[in-house]
Design brief:
- This protein has 183 residues and is an all-alpha fold.
- The protein has a domain of 126 residues.
- The protein is 89% helix and 0% strand.
- The chain is globular and about 50 Å long.
Length: 183
Amino acid sequence: MAKVDQLATQAWGLIVAQGVIAILAGIALLFWPGISAAFLALLFGLFVLIWGIVGLVRSLIGMGKINLWWLELLFSILLIGVGVFFLRNTVLGVEIFIVLIGLTLIVRGLVDMVEGFFSKDAEVKEARPLYIILGVIGLIAGVATLAYPVAAGVAFIWVAGLYALLYGSILIAVSLRTRSMVS
């Protein structure tokens, strides 16, 4: 129990920071949906491109030294292609990005619900209803996003913004509650 208490005490500030960032992202998504979607797609494309370049360099450096270096090479070339595609095709990139976000929200919602129902950790047990509520919100947001990925692009951004606001608020509440339990 001492390790959990120490970890909760050390991590509460990071969780609050994550909550604040989620709230700020939610505000940006709600008030600037078009710019936010294009910006997210460009960031994602840039991230994937850099990931591919770094992987390409690593695979070439590891050639003959690391097993399966060639697999990393192939994957990295694929990533570079995907990154360039996203950077050159922002509209289609936004649509694909929206589908990926919808899937991510569903998975995050399921993970939060499983934690809420089955976790034996003291801090989760204490905030069990919040975890379950967060999971349900994630599932609803994800299903709504996948149901209308193109036609409801703006609605998706608003749903994602609302989810980010709620997620950030609940993270801060859970973090403060955990901190007060340990103190």
